[in-house]
Amino acid sequence: MPTPTVAPTPATHATTAAPTAPKTADSEARRLLHELQVHQVELLQQNEELRTVRAELESSLARYVSLFDFAPVGLVGLESDGSIRVLNRRAAAMLGASLSGGQALRQFVAPQSTAALILALAGGQTGQQGPIELQLAAPGPVGARFVDLEVQAPAMDDDACLVSLVETTERRHAQSELRRARDLLELSGRVAHSGFWELGSEGRRLAWSAMAHEILEAEPGSVVDLEELLGCLADGEVREQLQAAFEQGRQGTAFELEVPVTTMRGRAIWIRLSGAPESDSGTPPRLLGTVQDIDARIRLEQARVGQARAESASREKSAFLSRMSHELRTPLNAVMGFAHLLAMDAAIAAVPQSAQRVGMIQDSAKQLLSLISEVLDLSRLEAGAVVPTITSFDLVSLRNEVAAMLAPLAAEFNVCLSLPACEEAVHAAADRHRTRQVLLNLLSNAIKYNHPGGEVTVQLRDAGQWVEVAVMDNGIGLSDEQRLRLFQPFSRVGAEHTLVPGLGLGLSISKQLAEAMQGRLEVSSEPGVGSVFTLVLPRGSGTSAAVKTQETVPATSAARPHRLKVLYIEDNPVNVVMMQALLEKRPQVLFEFAIDGASGLAAARRWRPDLVLLDMQLPDVDGGWVLRQIRADPELSRTRIVAVSADAMEEQQRAGLAAGLDAYLTKPINFDRLLSLVDDTPSLL
Ligand code: ADP
Fold it and tell me: Does residue 478 have its Cβ closer than 6 Å to ligand 1?
C-alpha cells in the first residue's frame, strides 16, 4: 500500500521573516494551529487508507477462505504432531472428517498405508516432492478408495504443513479396467495367434505386445527399430513388400499382407501383418496393427493344393494307362484271335511245323498280354489307384481254388502240392480277387523255382488279429543278397538266365497288394533248402460274405441247337472279321454287326438280337449311351448285353456292370469265356 505523504505547508516558510515578539507569539500560535490542522488532515487521510487496506485484507481473506474451502482438491493443514489444524470441505468429504479439525490424519488412512503416510510427511518436511498413493480407511460403494497425497507447503516456523489430497479411486478403477482389457486383448490375441504393434509417428520406433514377441520369437524389447526388424524378418522381395506396406500405412492407407518370414530364432513361418493409421493423428500418422501366426493354415492349404495336384496327376496317369492299355490290347486282340483261329484250323493242325509256329505266336502274345497287365497293375498300385474292395471271406476255400488252378502247372514241373487240412474256416478281411492274385503268384513261384519231385505246402494259420497263408517250398531257395532285391520290379534275381518263364513283376505287385489291403508279405529262405513266403492279412469276421469273382469262368457247355441272334457293335473291321470267324464255331448263331453306336442301336431295335456284343469306345457315341438306350427300350428288355472292350480298368468294368451290362469281356478276348456266354444266352426266338 502506498505510504501517505503530507506536503509541507507554504505557511511554514512564510513565518521565517516575522519582525516582533507579540506578533511572534501570535504567529507561532497560528503556525501550531495550522500544523495541528495539517496533522489532523494527515491522520484522517491515514485512517481512510487504513480502512481501505483493512477492507482489502478482509475481502482477500474471504477470497482465500472460499478458495481454500471450495478448492477442487482436498487441502489439509497439519500440526507438527499430524493432527488436522484446518481442512477444506473437499478434504473433509474425502476423509469423512469434521470440518472443525483436531483429529489425526492417520486415523483416516487404512492401516496398510500408515507407514507410507508417515514417510510422505517426513519427506515433505525435508523438502522431498511428489505425490504418494494412500488407501483410505473408509471404503466406497465399489470397494477400497485411494488418494494421492502431496506435501504442498512444508513445515516452517510454526511447524505446520499443508498437504493436498486428490482422490484416485476412479483413476485406479479405470486403470485396472484398462489392464483387464489389455489382458483380454492379449488373451484373445493368444487364442487367435495374434499380437499387436504400434509404430510411432516418427516412423521408426515400434512397440509390440507380448504375443507379437512370441510369434516372432524375439526377446521382449529386443527389436524396437522398424528397419532393424524388417532386416531380421526377411530379405529380397518379401522385405520390399513389407517396406512398401509400412510406407503405404504412413501415407494414410491401411494395409494387410500374408508373407513368409524368418523368426528371430531362424524358423520359417507365415504371418499375416495388418496395419492402419490412427484416425485422429497428424501427418504422418501413428500406425496400429496386428501380426498373426498363420503358418499352420498356410501349410494346410499348401498340403491340400499338393494333394489336389497329386490326385489330378494320379487321375491323369490312370487315364493315360487306360488309353495305353486300350491301344495295346486292340492289336493284340487281333493277333491272339487270329492265332487262335489258325490253331483251330484243321489244315494247319495237320502240318506240325505250322501248328508249332502258331503255338509260338500264341505263347508270345500271351506273354505280351501278361506283361501289359502286370505293368499296368504295377503303375496303378504305385499311383495309389488300386482301391481294394474289402470283404470277409474264407481263406481255406480260396487256397483250394488257387491250388486247383495251378494243378496243371504243378504236374508240368513234377511238384507235389500239399494242402494241410484246416478244422475251421480261416477268415480274412481283404479283397478276395486281389488275394487270389497274390496267392497265384506265390504258388506258381513255389512250383516254378523248385526241382522235380519237390513239394509245395500251403498252410493257413489264425494268429489273433491276423491270418497267415504260408507258401512253403523245398526248392532252390534264395541267398540274403537275392532276398534284398526280390521285390524290385523286373528283378528276377538270377532266374533270367534260366528257362523258367517270368517277368520279375509278380512279387513286387504282390507285396504292394498286400500292403494296400493293410497286410504284409514276409519271406524267409535258404539257398538249396527252400523258401517260405507268408501273406499276412487282417483277420475277418466269422461269417463269409458272398464274394463274386470275375475270373470264375463257367465251364463251356455244349452248343445248343436253337438259333441265336448276335449283334456286334464295333468300328474296327479286323475285330469284326475275327468275331465273325470265331462265332462260325457256333452254327446256331446268326451274326450281324454295326460300325457305330447310332446304327447299332437302330439295328438292335429293328432286329431284336438275343445278344449284343458292344465295344465301349465307338466313333460317334460311347458304349454306355448305347447300353442305356437299349436298357430303356421295353422291346429289348430280354436282350443280353456284353461289353467287349480294350479298356481293362477295373473301375470301368465295375461302372459298366452297375449300368446294366450282363458281362464285361476285355480284349484280347478270352474265347472260351465268350463262347460260354454265347452258349448260355437264351434264344428269344
Ligand atoms: P517272376 O517269377 O515272373 O520272375 P516274381 O516277381 O514273381 O517274378 O519273382 C521274382 C524272382 O524271385 C524270380 O524271378 C525268382 O528268381 C525269385 N523267386 C520267387 N519266388 C521264389 C521261390 N519260391 N523260390 C526261389 N526263388 C523265387
Answer: yes
| This prediction's pTM | 0.47
Q: Given a cut of 70, is residue 22 above it in pLDDT?
A: no
Q: What is the 3-state secondary structure (H, E, C) of 7-75?
A: CCCHHHHHHHHCCCHHHHHHHHHHHHHHHHHHHHHHHHHHHHHHHHHHHHHHHHHHHHHHHHHHCCCEE
389-422 burial: b if 16+ Cβ within 10 Å, else e: ebbbbbbbebbebbbeebeeebeebebebebeeb
- Quote the CA–CA distance of 131 and 110 in Å, as a whole number: 17
What's phi and psi for 130, nearest 5 deg? 105, 140
Please give the Cα distance from 595 to 256 (Å, whole number): 63
Amino acid in the structure at residue 187 = L
CA-to-CA distance for 229 and 205, rounded, in angstroms? 10
Residue 552 has pLDDT above 60, yes or no: no
Look at residues 514, 533, 538 and name the one whose alpha carbon lies nearest to residue 442. Answer: 533
Confidence tier at 553 by pLDDT (50, 70, 90): very low
CA of 604 to the centre of ligand 1 (A): 50
| Interval 255-285: pLDDT, tens | 999 999 999 899 999 999 999 988 655 567 8
- C-beta atoms surrounding 476 within 10 Å: 21
The 3-state DSSP composition of the chain as helix, strand, coil percent (nearest 5) reads 50, 20, 30
Q: To 10 degrees, the CA torsion angle through 241, 246, 248, 250?
A: -170
* pLDDT band for position 549 (cuts 50, 70, 90): very low
Query: Which of 153-162, 183-192, 575-584 has the highest mean predicted lDDT (pLDDT)?
Result: 575-584
How many CB atoms sit inside 10 A of residue 189's CB? 21
- Which residue out of 447, 492, 498, 522 has the highest number of ligand 1 atoms within 8 Å of its CB and is therefore the one to mutate? 492
- Other CB atoms within a 10 A radius of the CB of residue 454 amount to 19
Instruction: Determine if ligand 1 sits within 6 Å of the CB of residue 229.
Output: no
User: Which one of 374, 443, 449 would you pick to mutate in the ligand 1 pocket, going by the greatest count of ligand atoms within 8 A of its CB?
Assistant: 449
517-524 contacts at long range (C-beta below 8 A, 24 or more positions apart): 517/388, 517/390, 517/430, 517/431, 517/434, 517/435, 518/430, 519/430, 519/466, 521/438, 521/487, 523/478, 523/483, 523/486
Cell 477492507 locates to 55
What is the pLDDT, as a whole number, of residue 286? 86
What integer is the mean pLDDT of 103-123? 89
DSSP characters for 115-144?
A: HHHHHHHHHHHTT----EEEEBSS-BTTB-
d(CA 135, CA 112): 8
- CA 504 to ligand 1: nearest atom: 8
Q: Which three cell numbers stand for residue 382?
A: 504305385
Alpha-carbon separation of residue 585 from 79, 343, 543, 581, 684 (angstroms): 136, 13, 44, 7, 20
Mean pLDDT of 450-459: 95
Q: 214, 195 in Cβ contact below 8 A?
A: yes
Q: Whose CA is nearest to atom 14 of ligand 1?
A: 492
Distance, CA of 39 to CA of 148 (rounded, Å): 58
> What's the pLDDT score for residue 82?
87
Confidence of residue 291 (pLDDT cuts 50, 70, 90): very high
